[in-house]
Amino acid sequence: MALAREITTVGVVGLGTMGAGITEVFARNGLRVVAVEADAEGVARGRGHLEHSTDRAVRRGKLNEGEQRALLERISYSTSLSDLADVDFVVEAVPERTELKAKVFAELDKVCRPDAILASNTSSLSVTEIGVHTGRPGKVVGMHFFNPAPVLKLVEVVRTVVTEPDVVEDVVALAERLGKVPVVIGDRAGFIANALLFGYLNHAVRMYETHYATREDLDAAMRLGCGYPMGPLQLLDLIGLDTAYEILDTMYHQSRNRLHAPAPLLKQMITAGLLGRKTGRGFYTYD
Ligand code: CAA
User: Fold this and answer.
1) Domain formed by 9-185, architecture
2) What are the boundaries of each domain within the chain?
3) pTM (predicted TM-score)
């Protein structure tokens, strides 16, 4: 299939858990990445995450040291979106707040080439709403990775009613080039996987907060009884409780389905700073 554009250099905006993982996926697959964070501290955190993750790949024999070095050298870091002026494609992975994403997209629209595709890694916000803050909504698309991005194969490609068909085709081809399996879906909160997953995760938190079962027993039941790689509370710690709350809240507001009304304990834990693995403590404690 002839692609509308060749993608060799990409931008990633936001180097949290997802953005750093996505950066690694691109760089592992030979693309040059300009990775942008809001400040030097964010850049240092993102760089640390990438070094840690690729060190692990070296320890496990998946990369040799030369390949690790080459991978890391394909990434340049910046605190300014204006450094994305020459990239072919951008994926945004900043926190799940529409106004923040809208601001980033309006700025990207100003600095990026007119033919560049602007993608969002949003988990549940409206890609359509984000896209209308640009002068190129036809080139705005969702490209949703799963955590950990270097490991999980699925990419949800979200097309809005105005996304141009060749943009969807190019993002599907890009996902395949990254060794991922793309699925194409319309713009509805939660897309496919989160719409199905988060009702289950929320239910597990409710079972835990009502002392229906211990965290260990809840997690063991789903791992050992259903063959899931992680129990629901372990998975919430991986996703991050703040991210999980935002996803549930957005889906609840869109559908009014009580299944997605965030369990009160989630908010309490977030207020207390227990966000999961990234803060060292969530339902479990981490070193
Ligand atoms: N970053 C990079 N690589 C990682 C990783 C991480 N955070 N965690 C594990 N890995 C790699 C390991 O290096 C290892 O790689 P190799 O096979 O190449 O050696 C591989 O993953 C397996 O790791 P482990 O043997 O240490 O552990 P495991 O077999 O228990 O797998 C897991 C760990 C991949 C996280 C697995 O438990 C799993 O798939 N859990 C479910 C994760 C899940 O459901 N994610 C979706 C969350 S929802 C979401 O992301 C959507 C959203 O919008 C929030």
Assistant:
1) 3-Layer(aba) Sandwich (3.40)
2) 9-185, 193-278
3) 0.94
